[in-house]
């Protein structure tokens, strides 16, 4: 799993240059020409930025034909050769994906010289943006999609152990404490619970995971639920994905002020559907609580780094919720049930 990649100054500059080059219609058309269907004669193209990070960007490319037709694509470029790994992983997933069923969005081409993946553009609404009435059923579908992914007999890399996840979390907390010394008052007690809970986990077989599962990674087309972004794929405890999703959903509910009873129903909709599809011992509820809690700890660092509106209030809630989730992973909590 690729937790953290920091591109060099040269890689950042090259990525910016490739983004700027996509503003040239002729260059964009030549990149996309092999993806166009027979008889589609392009006469122009435009690119609009969707998201940008230090190590990657995504643009929406729209190609127009001489007959007035349009074709839209998502282009994802990387600062290094990681795109080739995502392309190889997508190839292993392709035989298991049916176009009319819920499943991951896969690229159709990789352009090595550009370090760029080409995807068909998919119209839809993010699961995080659909109506409250639709949320429970779509969350259950998201859980079943995740379980289907975890059941695939695909081994994309060496297993990632809990020690790696704990070390990465410790690194984030250390950076937070150095930059904001006052955070030490809650960082150290939280990390002590993390490290204790990590010793209590149930043994489970590793599985293929998405690695960044959240409502913002699911697109609802009105007919299909599509899972986006393969950048964090890995091979680890499947509870990692489930716990990560639940933590992100809980954080979203807190941020948006979702009524606690409703938030609890949404969390239960995903958790119950997932455990029905992946019953113990295939996945451990204890481990799900652990990864739920450790994800909230990691997101406390994200809030300090980005400082969105209302972030300080949210940090207080995440500290409490992280402690609760981690304590649920302890043997004493299991015995109470």
Account of the protein in words:
Helix content is 49%, strand content 16%. A hairpin with a 4-residue loop joins strand 2 and strand 3. The model has no long low-confidence stretch (mean pLDDT 96). Helix 6 (184-198) runs antiparallel to helix 9 (285-306) and helix 7 packs antiparallel against helix 8. It has two domains: 9-121, Phosphorylase Kinase, domain 1, CATH 3.30.200; 126-336, Aminoglycoside phosphotransferase (APH), C-terminal lobe (Aminoglycoside 3'-phosphotransferase, Chain: A, domain 2, Alpha-Beta Complex). It contains eleven helices and eleven strands. The protein has a five-stranded antiparallel β-sheet with strand order 1-2-3-6-5, sandwiched between helices. The longest helix has 22 residues, at 285-306. It has 337 residues and is α+β, with helices and mostly antiparallel strands.
What would the CATH topology of the largest domain be? Answer: Aminoglycoside 3'-phosphotransferase, Chain: A, domain 2
Total number of distinct structural domains: 2
Mean pLDDT: 96
Q: Say which CATH homologous superfamily of the largest domain is assigned.
A: Aminoglycoside phosphotransferase (APH), C-terminal lobe
The main pleated sheet reads as: 5 strands, antiparallel
Distance between the termini: 33 Å
Order of helices and strands: HHEEEHEEEEHHHEEEEHHHHH
Shape: globular
CATH class of the largest domain: Alpha Beta
Number of helical stretches of at least 4 residues: 11
Helicity level: 40-55%
